[in-house]
Amino acid sequence: MNRETLTILRFPMEIRLQTVKSELAKTPRQLGYRMPAEWEPHEATWLAWPHNPEDWPGKFAAIPWLYAEIVRLLAARERVHLIVEDAAMERRVASMLTRAGANLSQVDFHRWPTDRGWLRDSGPIFLRNARGQLALTDWRFNAWAKYDDWRLDDRLPGRVEKLLDLLAWQPSLAETKAVKPRRIVLEGGSIDVNGAGLLLTTEECLLSEVQQRNPGLGRAQLERVFHDYLGIDQVIWLERGIVGDDTHGHVDDIARFAAQDVIVVAVEPNRNDANHAPLAENLARLKAARTPAGKQFTVVEIPLPRPVVFRSQRLPASYANFYIANGAVLVPTFHDPNDRIALNLLAEVFPDREIIGVHAVDLVWGLGTLHCMTQQQPQAIAAAISR
């Protein structure tokens, strides 16, 4: 191949690199990207196969089979990207999925080592623009500012970026007199969006000095980051999460958008329960909040199950940790009378989707359930943003 031919082949690549560099110099907001709502059509769901027995001490044997059932349910409706440690694990998992009745033709394996399997928090947060083009945000992950093993998980968004060949931003805050430039720490479970410019989060998680993700950053600065990188116009700040949540206040255990103006919120009517007061405060804030058009939200109250306790530790059991898939909503259940109430309420909220209860008493011993373990990849098409 002569020099002239090499120059011709190289030139389009140079143009592409220049274009990418130019686009990344702008924020996703400036390029028309936003974070879609979870109910918008999915291309796939991302999961990481569980491999660390210490995440479920004494109960780990049951967890892989529970994951296999969840993969079966999801693969019947959309593709599943499944992260495994190595080739040997891929063979074992493929065998388990076959025995569980999962459609393996809908499962793509990726041999990437991980620290943990909570993809909601360590995985990428996807964006889409009006033309249907996908991009992603690669937030810094530091294991909820609590644990030491996070470096493998922090690499996951970069791996997905290369696999899918997408534009990717590492959200950061520009230098000011008070704050030096830095990458922003954010977990997907700490936020929830309606796909039309609104975001839910908690002060406990993002503003507290306990398990502090971004020291020195305040409310206004975080709201600017959400505006620039997720396309958010308004942030609704709730107060606290539920007892037993080692993330220190993730919103996906307490309040979730179910449509642009519909919010499902966890409540605890028992005044003697430690969750009663903080959840009552969250409910009051949501009732006082207004849509951009000045209207009240439709607020649907969903009860918590009775306390789920194992080895004298109260666990973060909540029906609000549901996952919205194509055509279905997977809901954690806890062998509790409120299971039926929660499933019926969500059937009313999502009348066009199948509501599927998934036993989560063992799963929640890992301090997370269905929403925590999943991360949706939107379809790369222009889609309506209303449910």
Determine the strand fraction and express it as a percent band: 15-25%
- Assign an overall shape: globular
Q: Tell me the name of the CATH class.
A: Alpha Beta
For the record, what is the CATH homologous superfamily label?
A: L-arginine/glycine Amidinotransferase, Chain A
Question: Which residue ranges are poorly predicted, with pLDDT under 50 across at least 5 consecutive positions?
Answer: 383-387
The radius of gyration is 21 Å
Tell me the helix content: 25-40%
Q: Indicate the structural class.
A: alpha/beta
| Reported CATH architecture | 5-stranded Propeller
The name CATH uses for the topology is L-arginine/glycine Amidinotransferase, Chain A
Give the total of domains: 1
Strands of the largest sheet, in order across it? 3-2-1-20
> Got a strand count?
20
Query: What is the averaged pLDDT score?
Result: 94
Count of helical stretches: 12
Largest sheet: 4 strands, mixed
**Terminal CA distance:** 55 Å
Structural account:
The chain has 387 residues and is of the alpha/beta class. It has one domain: L-arginine/glycine Amidinotransferase, Chain A, CATH 3.75.10.10. It is built from twelve helices and 20 strands. It has a four-stranded mixed β-sheet with strand order 3-2-1-20. The chain has a three-stranded mixed β-sheet with strand order 4-5-6, with helices on both faces. It starts with a helix and ends in a 9-residue tail after the last strand.
Q: Summary?
A:
The chain is an alpha/beta fold and 387 residues long. 30% of the residues lie in helices and 22% in strands.
